[in-house]
Amino acid sequence: MLFKFRPLMATAAKVRATPAVAASTAAAELDEHVHYKHTDACHHLRWTAKESYEYMYARPWSRVVDFYADLVRAGAGAAGLAKLFGKDEKDYTLDTTEEKNYLTPSEKQTATISSKDRGGRWERVTFKIVLSYHGGSFDGWQKQPGLNTVQGLVEKHLGQFVDERKAKQLEARSLPIEGCAIVAGRTDKGVTALQQVCSFYTWRKDVKYGDIKHAINEAAPDKLKPLHVLEVAREFHPNFSAKWRRYMYIFPLDEDAKLILEEEHSSKVLENYDHNIKPQSFDVAKVDKILKKLAGKTLSYKMFARDTQASRSVGPPTECFMFHSRAAVAKLYSANEDYKEGMRVMCFELVANRFLRKMVRVLVATAIREAAAGAGEDALLNLMDATDRRATAPPAPPEGLCLVDVGYEDFSKQRCFIVD
């Protein structure tokens, strides 16, 4: 299935400048916009970083933002996505009936020592909290001064459950009495989460699950919703105990897009090859084939990461194992009466043991760019060996990204939305 693009946004006309100013400006632009030199057969058809960025941000993202807002408001968690793919919500409902065992063999042996023979942190109570929040309503997860973040809001409302000793320590340091929420994975501004996982601990024994749920629920009604609260073993860590994370990216397709036969797309690519004209369509099925090549492999995704620390830009810290990577067309419906007909979108479903910063967004943008250029199915695999991150496309907008859920049991494809 192929779709036709709208033209890329036109660039503003440049004002005539003096030779000296023009020369310095040209030199600055040369430094800022040096393009990676691809050497494959379709290098002349590949969008530049600017062209890719403009195309991605020209999509009707407000429809996707509204869709995510409706999901968070409904409080169905990951199950809310089932209708997009014609699935039964009951098969994806959050399991709240059983307490999982998050201990490794070495931790199990250590845990056999009774807590009464220990003191301090072994006597504290740890709670696992599953949250749903709308990315468009917050400045990301991580607490930052002067910003409306999810962590800042959650910790503020957990302050009422802090034990007396910690409260006195905070008061002595002239700090607000707040709880400490440890998260499975931080999300950027604009990124929604349907089943984010965080933990909170206290030495108080009188704290009940319902009290925590009620407190967080009052923080930002319809924008931040606690789905489940459960007491877990002290060794539980939302990040380190997790075995996989699942992300969904919803990419709006043109409302006036016309279906193009595969033969017609092939002829367009050949025509573009002769006249050096950038392609005007991409094949959704081709995007899916490109993504499928990543599944079942441990690979270094350093070329697809952004804003990472130098120590985490080389070696094992860049390696991720991709359990599942697919793309498919779906119909996006909204509660807004103006959009009852629905909008065609392309959904990306990615499941891995971990993800690097902005990795999903770069993978989405690069997969679309490569499919449009007519690259082979190994396009993303070939880019793993690139020498510069400019070889990949700029990150797709955060509004399309959603952290679906986090898994603490072995991954099962039965819970995937996009399958053959």
TrEMBL record:
The keyword Transcription regulation does not apply. It comes from the Eukaryota. It is an enzyme of class 5 (isomerase). Keywords: Isomerase, tRNA processing. PANTHER family: PSEUDOURIDYLATE SYNTHASE, TRNA PSEUDOURIDINE SYNTHASE. The keyword Isomerase applies. InterPro entries: PsdUridine_synth_cat_dom_sf, PsdUridine_synth_TruA, PsdUridine_synth_TruA_a/b_dom, PsdUridine_synth_TruA_C, TruA/RsuA/RluB/E/F_N. One of its GO terms (molecular function) is RNA binding. It catalyses: uridine(38/39/40) in tRNA = pseudouridine(38/39/40) in tRNA. Belongs to the tRNA pseudouridine synthase TruA family. This is tRNA pseudouridine synthase. One of its GO terms (biological process) is tRNA pseudouridine synthesis. Its EC number is 5.4.99.12. Signal peptide: none annotated. Residues 340-409 form the Pseudouridine synthase I TruA alpha/beta domain. It holds the Pfam family PseudoU_synth_1.
